[in-house]
Backbone:
């Protein structure tokens, strides 16, 4: 049995329960399973939210069990394209019915789906925060120059003037700056490197944009959002990028960052909403990116996360159950997202996403 990182809780707890009955000294094992099991895998960015949605939705579906494995966006896309985990490590190689990614599928990915077709459905938005571990430093304000210096490897210690300039009242220890980054193929990495490439002219032609990159300088590389948060939590001098919820759960302090207009903005729900609200017109395929929001009140590093669904499902009951669950997440599920620190979808995006789901055959 895998940990939470592998298999997530099912929608119906009883669907995975083994009932043991003892009769005349013999143990009889009876497996009680749901009529339908719908499996998915992908991004860790929205994993806490998807777990909460699973818990909140279960009473409505006594005959359906949903499972979600947080394996990272890159592997989530790969599994969606293959229809299963080719390595057989997730769900024992059983088929999956949906994927999830914080980096929307590329045109090349979509071509690989074949006749079944693919639908990308935004489910929520989120802020990528820079959480840090500096005992005694409860607030930290970072300019764009400081952020670039930290993740390019140019800033080596916390007393660097590019950090102290925006934090004049803090007595920083002479401790090394230790950037914590993702090792696995990650949509969160895609979001933050997209921001860096937009904000820092030298970044696009240097480290570049991607779900996996070769980070310059000396870094600690770990897997998953949860892994970055845990590593920062135990590393004095550490600073790492992660989805807001993971920093919040561990009580990690988060830096206030300089945005495109020059203002300094903390990662709040209002600032996240302002960022997503500044996005351009939504394209037909719902692939929306806001690498450097222009709004004065916007938090600078945000992104959507998508469910990856097939346009056609051969199993009608499975298709209908999955559509119902996704439509629920786009409506009743949005207040849950907001309560957890995610950014609920704008009303227009909800309307467009619902139409995509309803058209699935």
Residues:
């Amino acid at each position: 049995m895998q940990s939470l990182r592998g298999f997530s809780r099912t929608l119906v707890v009883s669907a995975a329960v083994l009932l043991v009955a003892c009769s005349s000294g013999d143990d009889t094992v009876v497996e009680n399973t749901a009529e339908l099991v719908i499996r998915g895998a992908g991004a860790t960015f929205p994993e806490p939210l998807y777990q909460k949605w699973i818990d909140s939705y279960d009473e409505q579906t006594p005959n359906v069990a949903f499972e979600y494995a947080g394996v990272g966006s890159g592997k989530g896309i790969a599994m969606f394209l293959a229809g299963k985990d080719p390595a057989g490590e997730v769900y024992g190689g059983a088929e999956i019915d949906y994927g999830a990614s914080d980096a929307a599928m590329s045109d090349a990915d979509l071509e690989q789906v074949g006749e079944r077709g693919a639908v990308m459905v935004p489910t929520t938005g989120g802020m990528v925060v820079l959480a840090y571990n500096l005992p005694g430093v409860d607030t930290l304000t970072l300019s764009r120059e400081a952020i670039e210096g930290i993740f390019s490897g140019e800033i080596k210690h916390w007393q660097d003037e590019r950090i102290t300039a925006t934090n004049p009242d803090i007595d920083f220890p002479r401790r090394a700056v230790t950037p914590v980054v993702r090792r696995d193929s990650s949509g969160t990495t895609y979001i933050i490197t997209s921001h860096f490439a937009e904000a820092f002219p030298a970044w696009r032609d240097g480290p570049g944009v991607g779900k996996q990159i070769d980070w310059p300088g000396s870094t600690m590389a770990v897997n998953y959002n949860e892994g970055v948060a845990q590593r920062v939590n135990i590393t004095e001098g550490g600073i790492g990028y992660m989805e807001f919820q993971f920093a919040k759960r561990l009580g990690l302090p988060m830096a206030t960052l300089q945005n495109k207009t020059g203002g300094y903005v903390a990662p709040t729900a209002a600032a996240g909403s302002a960022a997503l609200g500044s996005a351009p017109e939504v394209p037909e395929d719902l692939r929306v990116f806001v690498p450097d929001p222009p709004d004065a009140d916007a938090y600078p590093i945000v992104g959507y996360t998508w469910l990856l669904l097939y346009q056609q499902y051969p199993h009608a009951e499975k298709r209908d159950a999955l559509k119902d669950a996704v439509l629920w997440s786009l409506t009743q599920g949005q207040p849950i997202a907001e309560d957890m620190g995610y950014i609920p979808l704008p009303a227009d995006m909800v309307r467009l996403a619902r139409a995509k789901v309803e058209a699935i055959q």
About this structure: The CA atoms of residues 42 and 75 lie 6 Å apart. The chain has 13 helices and 13 strands. Confidence is low (pLDDT under 50) at residues 1-32. The radius of gyration is 21 Å.
